[in-house]
Each structure stands twice: as C-alpha cells, then as structure tokens.
Amino acid sequence: MAVALVGLPGAGKSAVGRRLGQRLQLPFIDTDHVIERRIGCTIRDYFERHGEAAFRDVEQAVIAELASTRDAIVATGGGAVLREANRHCLVGNFHVLYLRSSPEDLFRRLRHDVKRPLLQVADPLGRLHELHGVRDPLYREVAHAIVETGRPPISTLVNMILSQLELAGVVQLPPQADILVEPDEPASSDD
Ligand code: S3P
After folding, report:
1. Which of 23, 32, 36, 71 is the most exposed place for a label (fewest CB within 10 A)?
2. 9 CA to middle of ligand 1, Å?
3. CA 141: distance to chain centroid?
4. Topology annotation, domain 2-165
C-alpha cells in the first residue's frame, strides 16, 4: 500500500518521505514536483498568474491520479487536505501519516522561505498559526497515525515511522534496511 504524508509546510514531508523511500526501496513522489512539471512553472508563479483555486484544481487532479499508485511514498502539499475530494481520496487509498509540528517550529524552519506563496506575508508566524488552526483538524481527519516532528532529527523520525509502519503491517522492511546508519540532515525547507 502507498503511504501519504500530510502536514503543514516545513513539517518535514519531503525530507522524511525521501528517506523513507530510500530505506524501503520504494519510489518517492512529491505532488508539488509533479504539479510543477505539469504547469511548467513554479507554484509561486502559478499562484500569481492564475490564483489559488486554479492551483488547487491541478493539485486535486494529481492526487486523484496517484490514488492507483501502489508501493510508493507520496508527500502531499500542505493544503491538499482543504478539499473534501482529496481527503476522501487520501483516506481511501493511502496509509496516511500526519507529520505534526507547532507553528513556532515550522516558522523556525521556514523563516527564510521564498517559495511558498502563502507565507510571503508580513507576519508568516501569524499565518502559520492561522493555517494550523484551520488545517490541524483536517490532517487529523485523514490520518491513520500522527507523528510529532518538532524536535527529533530526521533519521530518528524515519526510524520511528519505519517501526510503526512495519508493526501496522503497512510495509515490509527490505533486508538490511534496519541496519543502515545514515548521516543526519537538517529538516529541509523544501517540504
Ligand atoms: C501549500 C503548500 C505547498 C504547496 C503550495 C501550497 C499550502 O506545499 O503545495 O505552496 O497551501 O500550504 P508544501 O507543504 O510542500 O510546502
């Protein structure tokens, strides 16, 4: 079964997803990258030219197409849960992990971000609080499990998630996947 990662921007979806894919020897798919290939420009430019609703339409189409994907790790954009159709699709077709962080931790990671249109405002921390308030219940609604990503390094999170996924019978670790020791990386800002 495919695993989908949901959570606010900066929660670690891409960094964690990429590592999970490596450890499980499964493809890693980032819906934002699929969308950017499709629209032929950056998400930020697309927002500016066509508005958020047009972006959400492309996002919804991409998520619907990925519903038939088996055995992959899929990182979704932070706003994917806003549409009911996406929530329905995620719950029904993926094992969904909510990567949860406080707005303060997210702000610490994203304070220099220029890529995310929704955070290019005078008060990004305030915006993160607002987004958290609206979206936290939606992430919880679709999540099969919640992972706190505030403090632990990525490698610790990945190990925790792998054990949980294996216990839940969602994945099987490939031989030797559990003895890999990898250098740590800071929580990436491109998630
Ligand atoms: C968005 C989050 C972004 C991207 C777009 C909109 C959002 O993805 O899909 O900028 O609404 O929170 P990340 O969560 O990967 O930053």
Report:
1. 71
2. 6
3. 15
4. Rossmann fold (3.40.50)
Nearest alpha carbon, ligand 1 atom 4: 77
Distance 177 CA to ligand 1 centre (A): 30
User: Which atom of ligand 1 is nearest to 82's Cα?
Assistant: 11
Ligand 1 center to 118 CA (angstroms): 8
Would you say 22 and 155 are in contact if contact means Cβ atoms under 8 Å apart?
no
Distance CA 47, CA 152 (A): 33
Sheet strands side by side (includes 3-6): 28-30, 73-75, 3-6, 95-100, 145-148
**Does the Cβ of 79 fall within 6 Å of ligand 1?**
yes
